Amino acid sequence: MLELSGISASYGAIRALENVSLSVPAGRIVCLLGANGAGKTTTLNCISGVVPLTAGRIRFEGEDITGWPIDRIVARGIVQVPEGREIFPELTVADNLLLGTWLRRRKGGAARDFERIYNYFPRLRERARQPAGTLSGGEQQMLMIGRALMAQPKLLLLDEPSLGLSPLLVQQLFGIIARVHADGVPILLVEQNAAVALAASHYAYIIENGEIRLDGPARDLEQNEEVKAAYLGA
Fold first, then answer.
1. N or C: which end of the chain has fewer CB within 10 A?
2. What is the pTM of this model?
3. Distance between CA 32 and CA 156 in Å, rounded?
4. Strand-pair category, 29-33 with 55-60
5. Minimal CA–CA distance to 55: which of 190, 210, 213, 159?
6. Full DSSP string of 32-74
7. How does residue 170 score in pLDDT terms, banded at 50, 70 and 90?
8. CA-CA distance, 86 to 146, in Å (whole number)?
9. Coil, helix or strand for 185?
10. What is the widest separation between alpha-carbon atoms in the chain?
């Protein structure tokens, strides 16, 4: 479905990615693990068109999307939920969700999408008319994912969804992520909580200093001694 072939990227003279290749097959959750500054977010931003490539190609559903602008990539079906709480705090929860439909508004169906999102996140239904800035951190993360799903993604990119959440909220959130996947949305997941990410994923990549160092089925990497020592606290 998604294929990255030898992509590289830089921030000025600073190399961020070097010859990164990975794939997300249809119907799968794939996670990308690594330390802070390893290149995880840059990889997602390259896919989304936020960061230009200096080398390599990106293909989605067999089509070369290298160099496409952000809005065209979103319209094509790749939607990213960035790290942090990037909401519009003065707007209501419902209006924040509605913004997720802006590239497809003429296609209609927003009412059905609201119902679908509220089924995933009942708390958002309860808070629909509240300013989004009054939500808790966990609720804001739910809102960001809900807004991305309003765009009807063919592929969802999640950047550190558990950041700053309590263990109970992390468990609840990943339960919802599993439901989203079960409903047919493939996911590329960037996550520092390696144990949770590996448990949720089919396949995993380890990135260090902008390069893929290790990859394999998630269950295999859970048992890998190097991964245990570096990321699982063993």
1. C
2. 0.93
3. 13
4. unpaired
5. 210
6. EE--TTSSHHHHHHHHHTSS--SEEEEEETTEE-TT--HHHHH
7. very high
8. 12
9. coil
10. 52
